[in-house]
Write a structure and sequence with these properties.
- Strands 2-1-3-7-9 form a five-stranded parallel beta sheet, sandwiched between helices.
- It is α/β, with parallel strands linked by helices and 323 residues long.
- It has 14 helices and nine strands.
- It is 34% helix and 11% strand.
- The structure holds iron/sulfur cluster (2 copies).
- One iron/sulfur cluster binds next to helix 11.
Length: 323
């Protein structure tokens, strides 16, 4: 749903109210809160945000640029002040470093820190350095003045691909570094996914701007509203699973008929994420709908499982069907 005037980069009033409605529904908030959301967004000064990247492919930032509701432009221009983003900002080198330091200093204690990528600690952090500093040192300094942290993507949230066996660089998640006392403790929300859904990032950010707090989190610090159910729960192939219609090869009749991909290794029944609910590219489709099994990218240890294309063990009673 695009709420931007096609000839403008900022939200129109009508688009803004429409977006507040969409935001309320994606966060599972009652419609009665829409005026409060609108008023909150209008009166709140833009939230200073610093985005740091470590061991990542930049897919999470790329995913955020695909955010349709709100668009990245409206997020940056209307609701947050993105003071440092290594990928999106125009400046580079010393000028960029200075602007990051200036923002940390002037917004100390009240900026939101967004972390993308895992953080390596082997070889004194030499596997990810920036401006002559290790990623670990950079993160520790930025965490000191942060009001809260969002770990975007499976790498920042759970270690992701950099942490997969044998983890040669000593990659750690933000939470692991906090628990180990390597960085200061701050309120943390995890948005795992490879990459996370744009709406999960945008709505969590908007929730913080409006309510000054995270949405309700589960035990793994993930917003329940986006990670409370599995891919399987809303999958477009669920009726095939329930009828026992399974593709057994990627080129068989079942695959061509759109049958369930469980026997091709789909991890959807054990993967907590909202891809099947919100989908990608403005609600167009998601990997399973396009013919590929869910790899379970948003679960901890996803890349160390026994084979990406091996069927998993699921509680069959829970899913009413024996494959
Ligand atoms: S097993 Fe995978 S393809 Fe089959 S219904 Fe569940 S999520 Fe969809
Ligand atoms: S469908 Fe599964 S593997 Fe694909 S992005 Fe969503 S959670 Fe990750």
């Amino acid at each position: 749903m695009s709420v931007l005037d096609p000839f403008e980069t900022r939200l129109s009033r009508r688009g803004f109210l429409k977006w507040c409605g969409y935001l309320a529904s994606s966060l599972a908030l009652p419609a009665s809160l829409i005026p409060q959301i609108a008023a909150g967004l209008e009166r709140t000064p833009r939230l200073p945000v610093i985005w740091l990247s470590f061991q990542s492919c930049s897919g999470c930032a790329e995913s955020l640029t695909r955010s349709a509701t709100p668009t990245l432009e409206s997020l940056i221009l209307d609701f947050v002040s993105l003071d440092f983003h290594p990928l999106l900002q125009a400046s580079a080198g010393t000028a960029a470093e200075r602007s990051c330091q200036a923002s940390i200093k002037s917004n100390f204690g009240r900026y939101l820190l967004i972390v993308e990528g895992a953080i390596p600690i082997h070889a004194h952090g030499a596997y990810a350095t920036c401006a002559g500093q290790s990623g670990l040192k950079q993160l520790a300094e930025a965490t000191e003045g942060a009001a809260a942290i969002i770990a975007v993507g499976s790498c920042a949230a759970f270690g992701g691909i950099p942490q997969a066996h044998p983890n040669p660089t000593g990659a750690h998640s933000v939470h692991e570094l906090m628990v180990a006392g390597r960085i200061p403790q701050r309120p943390l929300v995890n948005l795992p996914g490879c990459p996370p859904l744009p709406i999960a990032m945008a709505a969590t950010l908007a929730h913080i701007v409006v309510f000054g707090a995270f949405p309700r989190l589960d035990a793994r610090k993930r917003p329940v509203v986006f990670y409370g159910q599995t891919i399987h729960d809303h999958c477009s192939r669920l009726s095939c699973f329930q009828q026992g219609l399974f593709a057994e090869r990627f080129d068989d009749l079942g695959a061509r008929n759109g049958w369930c991909l469980f026997k091709l290794g789909c991890k959807g029944p054990a993967t907590h994420n909202a891809c099947s609910l919100h989908k990608w590219n403005d609600g167009l489709s998601f990997p399973v709908e396009s013919g590929h099994p869910c790899l379970g990218c948003s679960e901890p240890g996803a890349w160390d499982r026994d084979g990406l294309y091996h069927p998993i063990k699921v509680n069959l009673a829970m899913h009413n069907r024996s494959p």
